Amino acid sequence: MQNKKSLLQRLLVIYITFFIVLVASIAHGFLPDFSKGYSEGSQMGNDIVKSWMSGTPRRVYMLSNIAIANSPRSEIALDSVAAADRSVEARIGTLCLTVEEDAPGASVMGIAFGSIGGSPWLYLLTVLNVLAFAAIIVLMILIIHSLRRSIREEHTLDKRNVWMLRTIGLLTILTELFHDIVNWRMAQRAAEVLAGSGYAVETGFRISYSTVIMGILVLFAAEVFAIGQNLSEEQKLTI
Fold first, then answer.
1. Residue 177 burial by CB count (10 A; 0-12/13-18/19+): exposed, middle or buried?
2. Residues 6+ positions from 12 with CB-CB distance below 8 Å
3. pLDDT digits (tens, 9 = 90+) for 135-158
4. Using an 8 Å Cβ cutoff, are 140 and 168 in contact?
5. Which residues 6+ apart lie within 8 Å of 94 measured at CB?
6. DSSP for residue 204
7. Would the pLDDT of 237 be above 80?
8. Does residue 60 or residue 154 have the better pLDDT?
9. Are the CB atoms for 191 and 141 separated by under 8 Å?
10. Is the pTM of this model over 0.90?
11. Burial per residue of 86-102, b for 16 or more beta-carbon CB atoms within 10 angstroms, e otherwise
12. Are residues 82 and 25 in contact, defined by beta-carbon separation less than 8 angstroms?
């Protein structure tokens, strides 16, 4: 029994460490965009309300994280005397755009839900991404609580951990796919907006394989856990 308790304690440490790494990796790419988007969204909301109240509604939407393949050369003027013999040329690699368009006859709800990429579908995917991330956090807390209870009561782990792990793995992959789809559609829209401006937008579909691999590892851990559960039950039946 002591060996089982020690094993469960080591498993708890492994789970907590793994989940901290998983949350940190997702939050690293999610939270900066979320906080920046929140501040920009507040300003856009004020602009939408003002244009609607003026009687000439205009559609305002964001196009963020737009990867630029080629951009016009721009030399930066340096005021420092010490930099008199130095020249600096800027090359833009990423753009964040705010687009305003006339929207005659559009409803205020249609304009509001098109504030991300100019499409309500991109707005929906962004909301689903936020909800999926929140669900991952909740499920991690539930699994850690279940492991602590297993150690305290000295019994095998709950079977619910298997489906919670599977859900976490699937949600981790989905959050990355949702994020990449939104960025891809924004890039395509930005290419249309910037046509003829000298900025060449990268419109290819890009995906972060590190997050996808993390999700696959979680699914693999869930299946290993399920096999261990089945072996434990079979051993109980043979005794």
1. middle
2. 144, 147, 148, 151
3. 988 888 888 777 777 666 655 556
4. yes
5. 65, 66, 67, 68
6. S
7. no
8. 60
9. no
10. no
11. eeeeeeeeebeeeeeee
12. no
